[in-house]
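INFO  loader      accepted 1 record
INFO  loader      residues=189
INFO  predictor   begin
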Amino acid sequence: MTHDSHKARLSELVKELAVIHQKVTLASGRESDFYVDMRRATLHHESAPLIGHVMLDLLEESGFAPGEDYVAVGGLTMGADPVATAMLHAAAARGLSLDAFVVRKAAKDHGMKRQIEGPDVAGKRVVVLEDTSTTGGSPLEAARALAQAGAEVVAVAVVVDRATGAKERIEAEGYPYFYALGLDDLNLT
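INFO  predictor   done
INFO  writer      dumping tokens
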């Protein structure tokens, strides 16, 4: 499959699996007439591998090559976890080295007492991920934790952008922001 066909098929699957047409209150407190439950797509046998390839392609087409411009991906648990894992596997299938990490909301109070799990990110260039973003709060929270851990956040990438201010907020913090699917791709405009 080509990048365009990967993205087209992913769009179809997200519409079929994850878009729910009903009034909901989002984590931001805003009300919406639809909800995009991305875990229904990020944990699905067909769409998860597509997500990995589409996100790798998105970043590469935006000038961020895995292994060169960034060496690890991840974000705030739980939305980012399956996206990071999908990218890790897609990169491995392409013969590329890419690690994944998980950012907890707070450091554990036992064991190693880490907030960021996985390979050490100190001194490494990383991309923050999210499955879908409304306000940009989760990716920014992850970016702050990563900076405290000594990582250099080079970009933020999400699978679905709701066009509700996340891009503007994240870019205002100085991070390039990329998304694979917008509302037009999901027939939600």
